[in-house]
Amino acid sequence: MNNGLLDRTVAFVAALRAGGVPVSLAESLDAVRAFGAIDVLDREDLRAAFAATMVKRPPHRVTFDTLFDLWWPPLLGDGTASRYGADAGDPDAGDPDDADPDATEPRQGHAVPADRDALRAELARLLLDGDEDGLRRLARAAVQGLGRADAQPGRQSWFSYRVLRQLSPDTLTASLLAQMLDGQDRDGLAEKVARQTIRERIKQFEAMVAAEVRRRLAEERGVERIAKTAVKPLTDQVDFLRASRDDLVELRRQVYPLARRLATRLTARRRLGRAGRLDFRRTVRASLGTGGVPLVTHHRPHKPHKPELVVLCDVSGSVASFAHFTLLLAFALREQFAKVRAFAFIDTVDEVTPMFRPGEDFPDVMARMTREARLVWFDGHSDYGNSFETFAERYPDAITPRTSLLILGDARNNYRATAATTLKHLAASARHSYWLNPEPRAHWGSGDSATAAYGDIVEMVECRNAAQLQQFVERLLPG
Questions:
Q1: CA 340 from centroid of its chain's CA atoms
Q2: How open is the CA angle 120-125-131, to the nearest 5 degrees?
Q3: Cα 126 to Cα 122: distance, rounded to the nearest angstrom
Q4: Statement: the pTM of the whole predicted model exceeds 0.70
């Protein structure tokens, strides 16, 4: 193996780690060993070998593919077949024109004319045919012809939005739908399938354009620089407060698999947990064989404690996505608790436990909570102080010595009274009390944040994403 290939592999592994994909040293070595089992000039074989040795979870695959396409590009410039983008100054890289034509894509000129109308006509034809290779070639030609612009005087850059704005693939949907149905019923299953097919092919083309723009930028500005911005954070690393609608959908989809993994892990931890109280009679009996010296102690079976859980969460607009996801996970893990009760508040509090029934669609539950629960008392802005006092007054039996109290919110109290004394009484009544705050710790105490007052009473934990939430749940349910 030449040094350039090895150095690029090491750099690729570093980029994966920076992108949130955990790759161990052993897995890196396995990837290097894979070079001896594949044709290293076959790019897809290389992708498959690296994926098999480095990718452990399905959510990591998108990040892996994005970075692989940057570090091992199929082409150089506007169409020269690449030997995985070897550096021009690498003496071991060889001449890219000498690469095996069956291993990488051959030199590509403009497969179609570069004017907008011709590109749109070709795009419509390829979308109708579902020609993946043709779409990829068209994406390259479109970026070459339409995606270049002067970012600064004397310096060019590449933009995917310029390509997509001029080609407007979404506006082709009606004509493509008419051709695909070709006289079939427009209101039946056939139309739904056709629309979904067109939508997926357009999305695929848009991804190809974005990948081609990233490749061009990586050649001009350096692959390390582009890799830092090309990769979206993994779903479990996305900040709750910055999550997009698509991120929230994906988070909700991952709740139940996450809950199952946590439940299995926690059950095993309980099963293998510490022994129970000393069994004095069995210990004395066993010591008779060693002259009365209790060399081995015997214990009663350990009965793990299943805590009760009370969740008190701010569902105001600023932290709604965090509260929704955390509530969903708490109820997905309900079997790990003896009892779960949920209370939501904005400037007053109401119990919402009955709304979380098995089989309920979670967005419907949240909509129902907003519509039916009494969460607003005065002006609809967060009021932690009034919410704590109302909770203590209305639900005096909710917290017992067996209860873990979990408060969810950013503690931004709009400069209102904190009711710290009431919170101190609630925390003292509970077995444990925790506060999960979705804001970065550096922002605590700024502006109208009351974290200083509340943090002295209840342990406050930074919980900005699903990964941190998982770590906390494992801590909340000790063996």
A1: 26
A2: 115
A3: 6
A4: no
The beta strands (E) that lie in 116-171 are given as 148-152, 155-158
Could you give the angle at which helices 60-71 and 3-18 cross, rounded to 10 degrees?
Answer: 150
Q: Which own/partner contact pairs does 356-362 have at CB distance under 8 Å and 24+ positions apart? A: 356/327, 356/331, 362/252, 362/324, 362/328
What is the domain partition of the chain in residue ranges? Answer: 3-98, 116-232, 245-273+305-476
**Distance separating alpha carbons of residues 339 and 196, to the nearest angstrom:** 43
d(CA 144, CA 161): 13
Rg (CA), the chain: 29
Per-residue pLDDT 10s for the chain (479 aa) are: 567 788 888 889 998 998 888 899 999 999 888 888 888 888 889 999 999 999 988 878 888 998 998 888 887 776 655 555 434 333 333 333 333 333 333 334 334 445 788 888 889 999 988 888 899 888 888 888 888 776 665 566 778 888 888 888 888 888 888 888 877 777 778 888 888 999 999 999 998 888 888 888 888 888 888 887 777 777 778 888 887 777 777 777 777 777 777 677 666 655 555 556 788 888 888 888 888 888 888 877 666 566 788 999 898 887 878 887 888 777 777 777 778 898 999 999 999 888 877 666 666 777 788 788 888 888 888 999 999 999 999 999 999 988 889 899 999 999 999 999 999 999 999 988 999 999 999 999 999 999 999 999 999 999 888 888 888 877 766 54
Which of 3.40.50.410, 3.30.470.30, 3.40.50.720, 3.30.420.40 would CATH assign to domain 245-273+305-476?
3.40.50.410
Q: Which residues contact 386 (CB under 8 A, 6 or more apart)?
A: 347, 348, 377, 378, 416, 417, 419
- Distance from chain centroid for Cα 307: 29
Please report, in angstroms and rounded to a whole number, the separation of the first and last CA atoms in the chain: 49
The full 3-state SS of 61-94, as one line of letters, equals: HHHHHHHHHHHCCCEECCCEECCCCCCCCCCCCC
Q: Which residues of 66-93 are buried (b: 16+ CB within 10 A; e: fewer)?
A: bbbbbbbbbbbeebebbbbbbeeeeeeb
Please state, in angstroms and rounded to a whole number, the distance separating the CA atoms of residues 283 and 292. 10
